[in-house]
Amino acid sequence: MPIDAVLTQEKDSPTVPPLIPEQPAEEGGPDGPVEERDFTFDGFRYTCRILDHGTALTEPVLVLGGSSQDRNSWVRHEKWLAPLGQVITVDLPGYGTADFLPAHYGVDFLAATVRHLLAELDVPRVNLVAACYGGAVGLRFAQHYPGMLARLLLVGMTTRIPADYAAAMERWSVMIDRGETETIARELADRFMSPPGTGRVRKHAAVSRLVYQQIAGQDPEQLKKSAEHNTRLMRHEWYRPEPVPAVPSLVVTGEHDTLCTPAMGREVAAQLPEARFLTIDETDHLAPVERIADFADLMARFCTDRPLDELPYASRPETLGTAVGAAGRGEGAAS
Fold this sequence. Notes:
Elements: H1 3-7, E1 34-41, E2 44-52, E3 61-64, H2 78-81, E4 86-91, H3 107-121, E5 126-131, H4 133-144, E6 149-155, H5 163-178, H6 181-192, H7 204-216, H8 220-235, E7 249-254, H9 262-270, E8 275-280, H10 287-290, H11 292-303, E9 318-320, H12 322-334
Parallel strand pairs: 3-4, 3-5, 5-6, 6-7, 7-8
Antiparallel strand pairs: 1-2, 2-4, 8-9
Helix pairs in contact: 3-4, 5-8, 6-7
């Protein structure tokens, strides 16, 4: 079960202690009718989850999670997102409970599946929130289908896979074949979480433990998908320098993210026409899990064009991007 799915499990009784320290059990749960629908694209079945509050303050919010997340990984965020309108999460082919996807299908195919999903749902434009591996898919979707994008929020995203992580994936693929899941689980937990001494990270020990338990407890089908995911990452372009639409954009990293560092996040923001960049205080690569209410608040603010300055849980936004750089060079030439 994915880590965020573990964190979003509903409690049977208010007396059940929270899974994460200092996180009230009543924090989560959908606020409105929930529907799940299956679709097929190019022969591969995939599943989406739709929460619809009935009113719409903005375009639907579509969330593309990371490789270890599924369509239920954002249930605890829905309490804050539901008043905005539709909230859509999805298990794309190759992930969650969707069909297995061979590795020769890459990021372009997954971006096309997102387009197919929106066409099937008759949703013309979305606020796209895309995290980690979902960020690669989300950015490719923005490049290929710009007319379907209202706003873009990228979380824990980078323009390049670090060389040491790529080497580790090669090793993990061999270890999966050998059934050495406990060792992989320990290594991945260490990768996702910032090392001791980096800085204070909320729920660090609890989340680290759950990451380990999630990976070590994978069943054969999940292991097969994990191995194929690693192969997909190595065979296909993670980032491609194609034009990105000039829509409101925000790039976010955890303050102490050592996998996709703040410097990497700034590099991503610099490739967009005009993007704001900020860090979430006291978090690392799993910021959406470590500060659920605050991250949901940030999503809601961004999707409704509310101010992001002086947030008590984040740094002040920096404005970056290709248009900003061009404007600066123009001013310099005129002076």
